[in-house]
Amino acid sequence: MHRRSFVRLLAAAPFAPALQPRNDLPPLRVVSRYSAAATPGMPGPHPGRVVSVASDRCVDTSTGKANDEAVREMMARGMRTLTGAGTTRDAWQRFFDARDVVGIKVNCGGYPYCVSAYEIVAEVVRQLTGLGVPVSQIYVYERFQNQMDEVNYAPHLPEGVQIVAAERANRNVDNSGYDPATYLEADLFGEEDTRSNMMRLVSRSLTKIINIPNMKDHGATGVTGCLKNIAYGSFSNVARTHQRGKSHTYSVVGTLAAVEPLRSRTVLQIMDGLRGVWHGGPFARTTRYVFYPRQILFGTDPVAIDRLLLDVIEEQRRAHGAISIWDRSPGSLKIDDTRARDADPNVNIIIREPGHVEYASTLGLGVYDRGRIRMQDITV
Amino acid sequence: MTALLLVVSLPCVYWTRGIETRATLEAAAIKRLCVAPERADSWRAAGFTVTPLSAAELASREALPSPGIAPRAGLASPTRSPWIVASGWRFTRHPGAKYVYDVPAGKAALAAAEAVAYGADAVLRIDPADVGILGGMLAFLEALPAVDLPTVSDVAIVDDGSSIAGEVMNLLARRNLLFQVVQAPSPRFPVNIRIGTPEYPREEAADPSGFALKIRGQLTDEQRTLRVYGSEVVICRLTADAGRARLHLVNYGGREIEGLRVRLRGIYGDGEAHVAGAGRLALQEQVVAAGATEFSVPRIATYAVIDLRTSR
């Protein structure tokens, strides 16, 4: 097996424009009784550090099927490299012990072609149980149960692992899964329900969270990576941030991710890049926009990983002749016309806000400057 | 309001079917009917409480739309900003008027709840398929503890009788902006709306949704007596005096809502929820902060009444 490992300091940003001061940001008010940990999980002990493990064997691109053995090897190499531990067990022990109640934030929105891979989720669970974390203290979670049901992780996991969601579906009727005392309050479009509440599971049960986003385009945020997955996947009533062509995700994504205790408890980022979506995201109802990066990114800094994701998605779009995720031209905008967006990668339904990643860096969630991101590439 | 008066204010089921349907009504515990005068005696003889209602009297009542949510392509989104058909604003505008609902199957219980929430004099023409569910709702309404409290309002609107003013009231109610209809501006209210004045031009009121949003901005969310979180389809009516409050919650969405969060300005202690279909439930996660009381209602399918006592 060919293996190579090297460290490189990345050059200046090839795509992303510099952050411009904006005066159109809505007032956001965070209410939380939780204080930050001494070292919050985001950006954690490895700010600005990303380990990328690639393998040509990890997915059969003709069928889309993942190779469990290759994924395990990628996971082991990634965790050992990130932590500098001598063994895989030691690497996981840097983050977790048997007393932890661990949440695994998956992404099911890209069903059927691009969701948090069963193989990655199963390997995470295997490592946690190997440390003595009881299966009853491991929660695979999403916001919507109907999405979890579609993806159906249960057959891939040991019996007893909790697979939970806050709401039965995206119908705005199930609030009991959310913490009424921990929320972001903002009036974005004149909506009456101005609160987005944190999942009770996150605020009241979990001690640690592992975030497993995919490499996906997103019509409102530009990309949906670590920040979007953990933020919009842990709070209620977030679809209200983007509508009628306008997206307030620029400031809301990072602000939600920074709300305690979510920020402190999210200690590990594992970006599933076995498969990706370069247009039409966060959904993947067709293979037309699916691609295969065949890599997994490891880190504790969600901003640094998402910064790299911006370029991954942008590069794919450029390769396919699609407009940039940074495109803000009115000519590309067909408000709410999802059919046109799905048919044509040069159509936006909302002005995207990929700047949300850099904005999150201003909240202390991580390192955005590519010149300061230390990336370690490994191929297995 | 006495218990007797409360019973009188329950909506009356206008029943056109013959006496042979008696068992259906009895099974649903519906004991009070409005019927054509020529049928009154036979229904009385069968043990029902009967109000004779002629066709002319029925026709003289103001017809109400069927309550609920309706699709409006390009104007409303089913989950984020649904189009609600509600008549609370009509009851507030003309509290002494007489109304009639003619509702399709599935809407009778909601119509009954809406009418009772506002103390409206309403007759219900229903689909017979709704007899069972309506009977359950009427039994719930009848069992509610009698409370007579003044209506709470945050803004006043001078009613010029125009349809535009009506639509503004509709949208104020839709946003749970508690309003009172007045004959002239009143210093009791921080916001007095008189459509056609420089501050509230008629052209602006022609967009009642935007207009209601303007009123909300003038009042400010902080000063609103009532806020509802966790749904865009629950419309409320609040009554209160110095010692107690009663909050009516009507869910127009057709789906049960769990964990609806309510914020009321004022310091309230113990409270309880009377929830149609679920009975008496404790309020959850009640907190008092910044001069307001917040609590969660465990569930609400169609209608709930929250009773609170002020805390000293």
Provide key terms for this protein.
heterodimer, A: 380 residues, alpha/beta, 12-stranded mixed beta sheet, 3-stranded antiparallel beta sheet, 11 helices, 19 strands, 24% strand, globular, B: 312 residues, Immunoglobulin-like, 6-stranded parallel beta sheet, 10 helices, 26% helix
Name the strands of the widest sheet of chain B in spatial order.
3-2-1-8-7-4
Structural class of chain B: alpha/beta
What form of chain B results from the Cα inertia axes? globular
Radius of gyration of chain B: 20 Å
Poorly predicted regions of chain B: 1-8
Weakly predicted, low-confidence segments of chain A: 1-14
Measured as a percent range, the helix fraction of chain A is 25-40%
Which range does the strand content of chain B fall in? Answer: 25-35%
Describe this structure in words.
The complex is a heterodimer of chains A (380) and B (312). Chain A is α/β, with parallel strands linked by helices and 380 residues long. Chain A has one domain. Chain A is built from 11 helices and 19 strands. Chain A has helices at residues 68-83, 88-93, 118-130, 145-151, 200-205, 226-232, 249-257, 262-265, 302-319, 338-343, 356-362, and strands at 4-9, 29-31, 49-54, 59-60, 65-66, 102-105, 138-144, 162-167, 178-185, 195-199, 208-211, 214-218, 222-224, 242-243, 246-247, 266-277, 290-291, 295-299, 374-379. In chain A, helix 6 (226-232) crosses helix 7 (249-257). Chain A is globular, with a radius of gyration of 19 Å. The relative contact order of chain A is 0.21. Helices cover 26% and strands 33% of the residues of chain B. A 6-stranded parallel beta sheet of chain B has the order 3-2-1-8-7-4. The radius of gyration of chain B is 20 Å and the shape is globular. The model of chain B is unreliable at 1-8 (pLDDT under 50).
